[in-house]
Amino acid sequence: MRKPEAHLVFDLDWAMDQSDKNPVYKAQYAHARMCSILRKADADADAAPPAPGSAPLDRLDHPLERELIQKLSTLPETLDRAARGRAPHLVCEWLEQTAGEVNSWYHAGNPARNPELAVLTGDAEIRSARIALTWAVRIALRNALTVLGITAPERMDRADADVAPESENAEIADTDPGAQSAPDPDALPSRPS
Fold first, then answer.
1. Domains and CATH numbers, the chain
2. How far apart are CA 57 and CA 126, in angstroms?
3. pLDDT tens digits for 30-64?
4. What pTM was computed for the model?
């Protein structure tokens, strides 16, 4: 990402690209994936989200999970530095890096290829901890996107999905990726106009 005073050549085709090449799309898609997992967890009585603070996060010992937790912990400092330095590009960089880590974790946990790392499989404690991590990722992505004035869709067009049918998230959605979703109580409040 570049600093606000840096020269910018805007490429409309790149900005409209709905793939991992576009960091905004990548972050929105990572958010939609987390929402999809949480919808499935909500529909599965055995995978109900844990009460806040009750998930055994110490059970998350895979390196991708640890890296993701570490990355999430840097959001408050990133937001503070961005605000103090009037440097929104720091939030953009955090979003792009975090979306990449989220997508790596998501793909590693494909139930067809690696069931022991899938969010909605495994023993109850690990499933509970992974649902809590998914919830935290969703909130962090939504908050960072909101700070930048970017929508955080809960569903994205299935045509854009690179999800295998056997994936726990095969049903990403059938709606417009730019559609506004219902207000989220966990997201940061909007700035007054």
1. 34-47+54-160 (1.10.730.10)
2. 8
3. 999 999 999 988 887 665 666 667 888 889 999 99
4. 0.72
